[in-house]
Amino acid sequence: MTVDEPPYLAAALRRRDYLISAWPWRALAYAVTTVPIAGVLTVALLIVGAPLLAVVGAVRQDRPIGLPIILFLAVTGIALVLLAPIVTIPVTMLERWRLGVVDPRPLPEQRPRSGLSARYTSATAWREVVYACWLGGVVPIAYWMFSMLVLLDLTLLAGPWLAADEDRVVLVWTTVDTPGQAIPYAIVGLLLVPVLWYLAGLLVAGQAAVARRLLGGPPADGAALREVTRSRARLVDAYEAERRRIERDVHDGAQPRLTSLTLQLGLARLDVPDDSPAARPLAIAHEQAKDLMVTLRQIVQGIRPQNLTELGLAGAARELAGEATIPVAVHADLARPLPVLVETTAYFVVSEALGNVARHARATRAEVRLTQAGRNLVVEVSDDGCGGANPARGTGLTGLADRVAAVDGRLLLASPAGGPTLVRVELPCRP
């Protein structure tokens, strides 16, 4: 199973067909459902914020502050500190679910420590509080500013009809008296529609990025994304040169000679009668030579897979997905060519990760995502299996981390008990 659509909104915004895809509508759905949630949080913040602003204003004007206001702020502040980590639990659950509308990439499973005290001592809980404050304080301001731009554009579009009432109409910086004078402004407003449509996507993508950052951090039990640290290889360039030399020598030297030897043995078998004492040893030698050719081809394939050379990274990943024992969706957004070493490393990352899924995860489906973030290639392989992957238990992740470290990349792993599992690899693409 392969899919070419972008894996999340921020990636879709970089595509030329964004405005005619389903992503703007998904961004609109996310924004519309944000309004009531942010509205409730804004009211809650205003209950504390309004008296606090009044106190600040009184202090600046050297006016006395009433005792009731001071008591109200003190009680409200204490209540806010005590209740915020608890109240934000449903908000967090809802926001993690809503994030899938514009960013379906899996988030690390939040498994907070048991006990009420954990809500007050866990960094995860306080990140959730910060997110709730941001959602109720900053997001409404951003949405209000965007709404003003939309209202301004609607005014430009409606200018010809508004001017038809024989009243002077103010459009941005000027006034118009007739529909004819308003038509150029309506054309400008029409041209601004796709710009606002795209700007709405940027606004929602920024909101989703903050949500992922604050709600997708390491869970309290420490089983979230953690870097599998390995020592960095210091001679990557020399290793790559040696790898290419071996590949060239095997492909251009040993393989043709072995092919010639196999042909000679085959011709010799034709000249030797079947009842000759040399017939059987010769047949065995011929079969062994053919088996050795297959082995040599596999060695060359392991150095630089042929399908990677012919199909590129995205095509080779899809071929690996097609060979998997469970449905695997491949999302590839590779706009720029990749260095050979990075491409080869990414291929083996996908191959090894899918192999681990088949051997250990007991999963029913998996996903492979290939994206370019800045100068990095990001490879993500996720599954819905049982989780619990641990590099110390010899699941192949240690060797995979070594391979990634050899190109100065890093491998991160999220695999809480019960799943899901996410393997994320970031490979720098040096020119």
TrEMBL record:
GO molecular function, one term: protein dimerization activity
Histidine kinase/HSP90-like ATPase domain sequence ranges: 344-429
EC assignment: 2.7.13.3
Transmembrane intervals: 28-59, 65-89, 129-162, 182-205
The entry's keywords: ATP-binding, Kinase, Membrane, Nucleotide-binding, Phosphoprotein, Transferase, Transmembrane, Transmembrane helix, Two-component regulatory system
Enzyme class: transferase
GO cellular component, one term: membrane
Catalytic activity annotation: ATP + protein L-histidine = ADP + protein N-phospho-L-histidine
Pfam annotation, one family: HisKA_3
Signal transduction histidine kinase subgroup 3 dimerisation and phosphoacceptor domain: residues covered: 242-307
InterPro entries referenced in this protein's UniProt entry, alphabetically: HATPase_C_sf, HATPase_dom, Put_sensor_dom, Sensor_HK_TwoCompSys, Sig_transdc_His_kin_sub3_dim/P
Residues of the Putative sensor domain: 69-215
UniProt xrefs under PANTHER family: NITRATE/NITRITE SENSOR PROTEIN NARX-RELATED, NITRATE_NITRITE SENSOR PROTEIN NARQ
Name of this chain's protein: histidine kinase
